[in-house]
Amino acid sequence: MPEPLIVARGLKKRFDEFEAVKGIDVEVQPGEVFGFLGPNGAGKSSTMRMIACVSPASEGTLRLFGMDPAVDGAKIRARIGVVPQLDTLDTELSVQENLWIYGRYFDLSRAECRRRATELLEFAQLTDRADSVVEHLSGGMKRRLSIARSLINEPELLLLDEPTTGLDPQARHVLWERLYRLKQQGVTQVLTTHYMDEAEQLCDRLVVMDQGLIVAEGSPRELIDRYSTREVLELRFGAGTNDQFGPQVAGIGDRFEVLPDRVLVYADDGEAALAEAHHRGLRPESALVRRSSLEDVFLLLTGRSLAD
Amino acid sequence: MSDTSIVLRIIPVSYLSALGVRRPHRMIERHVMAYRRQWLIVVSGFFEPLFYLLSMRAGVGDLVGDVSVAGRAVPYDAFVAPALMASSAMNGAIFDSTGNVLHRLKYARIYDAALATPMGPADVALGEISWALIRGQIYAIGFLAVMAAMGLTESWWCLMALPVCALIGLTFASIGFLGTTYMRGWSDMEIVNTLMMPLFLFSATFFPISSYGDWAWVVQLSPLYHGVALVRACNAGVWTASLVVHALVLLVISVVMLAWASRRIDRLLRR
Questions:
Q1: Mind listing the pLDDT tens digit for each residue in A44-69?
Q2: For residue B28, is it within any domain?
Q3: Range of the domain at A247
């Protein structure tokens, strides 16, 4: 096994009284796509900022490439690329100027900056917008430019904080495809997301975070197998009556969960569960059988849905 | 060397890198790139003091007559011109280190982006202050040229006013930068404007310190007063021991504010 690229032991982050990260252990191997999954406020972004060497750890140890961020922060940052949660593009500069100046921050020569910028604009499908003002770009374009910018130093590790939040489905798929290409090129990626489908699509391995702690770890498939049933039956009763009908499904399948807008029944055979519900005289407005997803894992582990 | 950084030439590089300062010139490079498209904004900063100067010569000067400086009678416009030069150095430095820095710090998040690279908070702070100084020097050179053309310079000593304006710029850029790290939003810019006006008017700018009578000590609290005194002395070519005190006041304020500002920006950006 090669040396892990990131090693965190008992990592904590405190802001005055508030403890955002309460001691986590993480290892990320080279070439891996690793995800932090969790709702807002779970401590994902604080963790990412510590890994990006822009926020000092309050406690615990953190090593990237075998180096300590407190000592070699600049050296580590020279080898990583960061796509922040909110775009920090330079709105006073054009699209390609954004790439040029960022390359200069990494001490690349001007000629090298231009060469790489041309390549990256191609990669981000922004070549024809090279001279545009950043402000006039769409959300998806800005995101792609942020990713292109984070690649200017040819990073060995790419950090993406909620890379597709706020994007329309088509823009997300374009982005996912680009990230997959980077994975094929061997770029290690660490990302945070609260989208289940994103985590399932992109991550080789992930941890579920809740209230500053890691509550589960594994590949998306492993987590689903370990924590959920094969299928899920979703029953929707009339608005405001889910509480009332929910308990009546008790005993169908392994367990059930009542949400404000629907009742979830966890069962290995969803169709059989639905037949049993009908047999009990339940008449939901709609019923749906689907496969278990990370969303269900999260619901079980934290008792809350991710959308909260 | 294309990366213009006055600071890097004055202070030994090894000392700076020990403080975590390695790339302040990159910040300047970024601003040059951004202002290439907005050169009109840069040029416009030169006109305000120029209009003041013209109005002093055309109108006020005739009414006031001569003013006594270091025991010599000087025409009013020649008295006011060095003070306006010092004031414009202050205005430029404050303008660059408050509104522009606030925008980049809180709204455009330029510094957050830069800190994800090998750039550090000290690079950002020193880069911004150097930029304010460079811009201030351009205005100072322009202003001095106009003074010379209007016959308001008295000797070659007036060239000494340029490094003095750099010192005034350093002082106010450091104060402005520090103040900006405490700002909550745009409304706090009003405080800056409110503080600048009395500084501009009551720093022995438009009348000699003797005319303030018992209140002269208040005037001496103004950093701009010390700057005005220095520029005036440069223009007159009259050197006295008190000038050392004026220069020291500005230097000490600059050093203290710079150190404080570096710590603040580090805490703000590396939370």
A1: 999 999 999 999 999 999 999 999 99
A2: no
A3: 229-291
